[in-house]
Amino acid sequence: AAAAAPAGLAGHNGRYRLKGFVSHMGTSTSCGHYVCHLRLPDGRWALFNDEKVTLSEDPPFELGYMFFYESAP
What we know:
The protein has strands spanning about 15-30, 30-40, 45-50, 50-55, 65-70. By secondary structure, it is mainly beta.
């Protein structure tokens, strides 16, 4: 038998959208560092690289290590 959905999830439509992801910048895992890409409310993407935050014109989704999703209507 299927378990009941936890409180707060009952009635959720099961749809999600990508909110952000972490990728690695560098030639190997022993060289470089990780950065975060987040979708802005207007749909553009921002790149968070230490103290520097810039718009990301072409986010490298294929290089993502960890992806973050949010519930979609």
